[in-house]
Amino acid sequence: MAGPEPEDGRHSTPEDDPRPSLWPRFLFSLALLGLLVGMMLGRLTTPDPVLLERIEVRQDGLTLWFDREPDVRAEAPEGAYVLLVDAVGRSAGGRLSLGSAPVSWKVLTSESGVMVRFVAARPLHGEWRGAEVDGRWRLEISLRDE
Q1: Which of 27, 65, 102, 139 fits 54 for a cystine, CB–CB 3.0-4.6 Å?
Q2: What phi and psi, each to the nearest 5 degrees, are found at residue 25?
Q3: CA dist list (Å): 138 to 57, 64, 122, 132
Q4: End-to-end CA distance of the chain
């Protein structure tokens, strides 16, 4: 307090405590513990990825066998035909004949899934259909040229 009397400590603010405050450490440790428990629960509840089991070459395309139904997206960039499948598998490649024209196909794996790519000298059009057969998922890819 301001006044003409000298300060004797009765009305002044207390001095700072030299001991460290434990409250920020406690809050940080609770946040860290919550993060770690959340990550462990997330790993436990994440389903196993879909597995590409087998690739069969047909006259007009491919047949891919999976252990269960994957998410599939089709694209047609500049005359090629590409399927993006949310699955895990091995890389493979080869050739097939579409009429008299050869078609190169390649299965590539990445972190985002499996990419099935078809390339030919002429623009390709394709369609895919999936069905469950004996507890597994069959994805048939049929190609036709323009």
Answers
A1: 65
A2: -65, -40
A3: 13, 6, 27, 6
A4: 93
Structure-block tokens of residue 77: 């960039």
The 3-state DSSP class for residue 146 equals coil
123 contacts 145 by C-beta, under 8 angstroms: yes
Closest by alpha carbon to 116, among 125, 126, 105? Answer: 105
Span 89-106, mean pLDDT? 89
Query: Helices then strands (H, E): number in the chain?
Result: 1, 9
Query: DSSP labels for 56-113?
Result: EE-SSEEEEEESSPPPEEEE--TT-EEEEES-B---EEEEEEETTEEEEEEEEEETTE
User: Residue 33: what pLDDT?
Assistant: 97
How confident is the model at residue 98, as a pLDDT? 83
Q: Which two tokens stand for residue 48?
A: 């196993």
At 141, the pLDDT band (50, 70, 90 cuts) reads very high
pLDDT higher than threshold 90 for residue 47: no
